[in-house]
Amino acid sequence: MPDPDLGERVCACVAVSDGVPPPTPAQLTTYLRDERRLEPRELPEHYLVLPELPLGPTGKVCAATLVRMAAESAVPARPVPHAPPTEETSVPPTTETPARRVGPTGTVVATDIKPERIPDEPGLEIRRHDIVRDPLPEAEFDLVHARLVLLHLPERVAVLDRLVRALKPGGVLQLDEFDITYGPALLMPDPAARRLYETFLAAKIRLMTRAGADVAWGRNAPAAMRAAGLTGIDPRPRLDLWTADSPGVHLISHHTRHLRDRFVEEGMTDRQLADVRTLLADPGFRATSCVMYSVQGRRPVAAG
Ligand SMILES: C[S@@+](CC[C@H](N)C(=O)[O-])C[C@H]1O[C@@H](n2cnc3c(N)ncnc32)[C@H](O)[C@@H]1O
């Protein structure tokens, strides 16, 4: 289903059989993870129960109708995912939300300047909070996790210092951030399409930089975290193959519309942006994703 930030999110649409109660989102997630072996990133973040699936004129499930119904009525299946902890990180892999994992004696606070999209759940305290300007308690948290926020903030280094100070001594900070400077085209329909893709990526880098982003923040974060006093810095880069079906490709296609004016300021025409959308929808499109870095660091126990 469409998502304003990521382009798309996964929604499970469940049609119930007569007399059989639908699974809860947690039961469905457990089944998909443990029985069907879905990757964490493939698990549903939204959930919609229907009496039956909508069919098109040919008798097949009508995906467009389902997407519309999901956009109107789906409920969150779990909080907006933070970077899926992988088996290599020191955070154990799980689809349990942080609020469930801390148990009855712990607390989890989720913040954003626009917190409306953070799904509510027991044990989760949601606060509207500007990480640049609003007060932040010191030495309060065992774990602080931020995904794809500092990249956009011109004040990212000062914010990083604040996040470090918000950790208890011994606490862990995890940043999940993109480096969008790497993402080569692999297979394009023709050389002109390759040039267009590269022109588009270069314009995106320029417009984000102009807006104050550090487009390579993912690769810069480990050194910045060390400079901020964290120890045991553990950077984990990840990249994927991008095809026309990839959520990341839907996201950059979405950029051609919601960032249209800024692409035009960077010299792209509406014709080129339309051609980029056509290219990104081409079944033969193959590119390397940008790089996502998950970086952990620990606040020293004895020092500042
Ligand atoms: C790319 S989205 C990432 C959302 C979410 N962290 C995730 O990974 O799904 C960037 C988020 O940063 C939030 N944001 C931007 N400036 C902020 C600020 N000064 N303080 C707190 N949140 C901010 C935006 O509202 C938006 O939700």
Automatic annotation (TrEMBL):
Pfam family, one: Methyltransf_11
Gene Ontology BP terms: methylation
Keywords: Methyltransferase, Transferase
A GO molecular-function descriptor: methyltransferase activity
Signal sequence, renumbered to the chain: none
Alphabetical list of Gene3D superfamilies matching this protein: 3.30.300.30, Vaccinia Virus protein VP39
Domain spans labelled Methyltransferase type: 103-173
Compositionally biased intervals (Low complexity): 86-97
Region described as Disordered: 75-104
Protein name: Methyltransferase domain-containing protein
